[in-house]
Amino acid sequence: MAGSNAQLLQERVKRRDYALRQLLAASRQRETLLKTILDTIDVGIVAVDSKGETLLVNNQQRAFLRLATPSEGSPDPAHHEQLVFGLDRQTPLPPEKSPVRRATRGETFSDYLVWFGSGAEQRAISTAARGMKNNIDDRFGGAVIVFRDVTDVVEALAAKDELVANVSHEFGSPLTSILGNLDLVLRNAEELSPGPRRFVEIAQRNAGRLRALVEDLLLSAAAVEVVHLRRTDLAGLIENSLVSAQAQANAANVGLVAEVAAPLWADADPLRLGQALDNLVSNAIKYSPGGGLVSVRAARNDSWVRLEVQDTGMGMTADEAARIFTRFFRTDAARQAAIPGVGLGLSITKSIVERHGGSITCFSRPGGGSTFVVALPAGAPPEYATAG
């Protein structure tokens, strides 16, 4: 009887051993398949744990890392800051702003552009990151960071913007001459009958609209240029923007209020970010034709500064809100209300915000106003920041 039980136990052990071997073989096959897939795609992938230790890196990412590593160094997926640069292609990216470090801190982002390498081999890399949850306690367990070569796209966009800037500049001189001469005609138009005078006024008005379009195109091209970041008190920028917009608000019977913690430090280009703020506040007033209230709120949230510009104006549909940052896009309600504009201000604003490493989103509903939310990296506290 004992021998029979021992034989039965042995058979069970053999079956369990066979099942475990089958599971191990299947696991290895899936691992091989995953590795083959990851090494086949032309996108770099890095997976890190909650401490930033590398769990996985594919062949394409190793190629990117070779670009980002000095010749005397060795590529390390988590520490490749030496030849990683910001948007100007020259300023080394601070270690705390590297894609892997940001992802290790639990940040989620997309379309974060950096430059790998130097000289003729330098490449524009668009990065994105998503966090992973720990199965045990549902806490942050690591992240996956994706790296994509977008050099051709960036260079094509730069060439297009240079063309727009050049063409717009060439339009500027003749338009100034046309408007100047039309103004002279109207100043000395006592002998003109009402009919011809009206035609001249129509020509002057449309030439003025064309010049405004050219100026917006020039601003649009300039907005994609390099921003010069330095420690900036956003509270002061917001105050200046509201003071500048007060006359426009008074004329439109719109109230202006601000809820901003002061000081509110961030790494920013005061000129460019001031331009973006002016666009948002001016738009909020302009699209509240029946009067109302424009509220500006800003506060620090962990490593980010959150800025909101909210109005009580005409609002827009969800589809329109999704397209509002597209160049030359204008809502049907804005056209029907004959609100002036060519649809470039918000496109320029989005470009400026993204050049700061931030993002901008819009929430709106018809008749219920709109809220524009800007998120900007706050950077280190001012006492630890170095002069830029």
From TrEMBL:
Which Pfam families does the record cross-reference, listed alphabetically? HATPase_c, HisKA
Q: Which InterPro entries match?
A: HATPase_C_sf, HATPase_dom, His_kinase_dom, HisK_dim/P_dom, HisK_dim/P_sf, PAS-like_dom_sf, Sensor_HK_Regulatory, Sig_transdc_His_kin-like_C
Q: What keywords are assigned to this protein?
A: Kinase, Phosphoprotein, Transferase, Two-component regulatory system
SUPFAM superfamilies assigned to the protein according to its UniProt record, in alphabetical order: ATPase domain of HSP90 chaperone/DNA topoisomerase II/histidine kinase, Homodimeric domain of signal transducing histidine kinase, PYP-like sensor domain (PAS domain)
Q: Outline the extent of the Histidine kinase domain.
A: 166-380
Enzyme superclass (EC): transferase
Superkingdom of origin organism: Bacteria
Q: Name one GO molecular function term.
A: kinase activity
Main location per the UniProt record: membrane
Where in the cell is the protein located? Answer: Cell membrane
Q: Which PROSITE patterns match?
A: HIS_KIN (PS50109)
| Reaction(s) catalysed (UniProt annotation) | ATP + protein L-histidine = ADP + protein N-phospho-L-histidine
Q: What is its EC number?
A: 2.7.13.3
Recorded hits in Gene3D superfamilies, A to Z, give: 1.10.287.130, Histidine kinase-like ATPase, C-terminal domain (3.30.565.10), PAS domain (3.30.450.20)
Q: What is this protein called?
A: histidine kinase
